[in-house]
Amino acid sequence: MGRKKKKFILGIDLGGTKILMGLFDRKFGLKKTVKLEMDGNRGEKFFFNKLIDGIEEVLEETGSDLSDLVTIGIGCPGIIDIYTGTVKVSSNVSFFKNYPLAEKLKAKLRVPVFIENDANAALFGEQQFGAARGHGEVVGVFLGTGIGGALIINGHLYRGVSGGAGEIGQTFLSIPSVSDFETTRLKVGALVGRNAIASEAGFLLLRQKCPHLLEEIGYNVKKIRSGALSRAIRAGDTALEDLIRSRSRWLGVALANVVNVLNPELVLLGGGMMEAMGKIILPEVRSGIEACALKPLMKALKVVPSRLKDNAVILGASKMACEILKMTQK
Known about the structure:
Blueprint: E1 8-14, E2 18-25, E3 30-37, H1 44-60, E4 69-76, E5 79-81, E6 86-89, E7 97-99, H2 101-109, E8 113-117, H3 118-129, E9 138-143, E10 147-153, E11 156-157, H4 180-185, H5 188-192, H6 194-206, H7 211-217, H8 226-235, H9 238-262, E12 266-270, H10 272-292, H11 295-298, E13 302-305, H12 312-329
Parallel strand pairs: 1-4, 4-8, 9-12, 12-13
Antiparallel strand pairs: 1-2, 2-3, 5-6, 6-7, 9-10, 10-11
Helix pairs in contact: 3-12, 6-9, 7-8, 8-10, 9-10
């Protein structure tokens, strides 16, 4: 009897508050997704149990098992050594410090595992299948719990010397003081990410400026997610809309710096906040870029939304894992 033909590739998006898994066939047609709540601060045992449970669930629901998997590709926030599958540091999972994630999963599952920064995986997915297809000079920005960024230069992902290129969320909009708190507070991610928005929205709640958001979540700031913000804005919470618009313009100003340095042809905006409020965010980001970028560079620039949306990371990670596996098998 011949060897069983492997049919599927598994893509995993390790987000700040959720894990999204997608099972793809060998032509990258999506067969099944599973979404799990996640808390990266509950320790290694909890994390691995959650991850393995999700993998088993997505396989069981498609009548398959681990022997059907060609490979697993994972998009993970942080600085990643893609050659060893080590997470050097990640803000979303407390024990990810020089952590050999690929090695541990491979030992557990007996399946090839490849790790990439989640923003890199998302932009690679968009280049292969989505809004960045056919473009060689691209800046990708992904608005989620924080702000993730990725770069395509000369048609290829640019990771930098240490694997951390593209981290626009770690750049500054103002000159920081010597205070560590002040330094952190002035970073783009701390001003524009969903956690930053949620903090400001909490103050608006206390000042009775968001009646529709208050009706949905009460004073529980932990429930301030992109969907809740979007629904409250549609219902008429204008103070919230003003907040989202102003912070989006700030992001545009930060991106103007990137445009002036790299002169890309495309700025691609994705992530959960874009999916929920893209019609508000995108024009404001474009306005901020136009106000501060060099005019000749703007003539060649397009600012576009993600086409793959929530599936960008899982699709990009799956495709990348397959390509790396092919190279290692030559």
